[in-house]
Design brief:
about 100 residues, alpha+beta, three-stranded antiparallel β-sheet, single chain
């Protein structure tokens, strides 16, 4: 019974640490860019889009598709960076649990 209580305490402590790490991730920001920096997207470590910056001379009314592609590429790069940051921050907490990669 004492072993079970110890496991429960460890699980609760891990849950608190995970919640704290997730709160920290929500405050951190990472960016991705496309078109040589013509479009930059910023997201939180939790994957929430915070903003998109577009250099004014990249806006061409005759080629909206290019701008759309650059925005998409910048957002995707920023989201990949956020996912990597999340794995770095949370991976150490969950590594000893035997969970499948990417579960948390």
């Amino acid at each position: 019974m004492a072993n079970m209580n110890n496991m429960m305490r460890q699980a609760q402590a891990l849950q608190r640490k995970l919640m704290e790490a997730q709160d920290e991730l929500a405050e951190l920001e990472v960016s991705g860019s496309a078109g040589g920096g013509m479009v930059t997207a910023t997201v939180t470590g939790a994957g929430e889009l915070r903003g998109i910056e577009i250099v004014p001379n990249v806006v061409d009314p005759d080629d909206v598709e290019l701008l759309q592609d650059m925005v998409t590429a910048a957002v995707n790069e920023a989201l990949r960076s956020a996912k990597q940051l999340e794995q770095e921050r949370l991976g150490g907490l969950t590594s000893g649990m035997g969970l499948p990669p990417g579960l948390l």
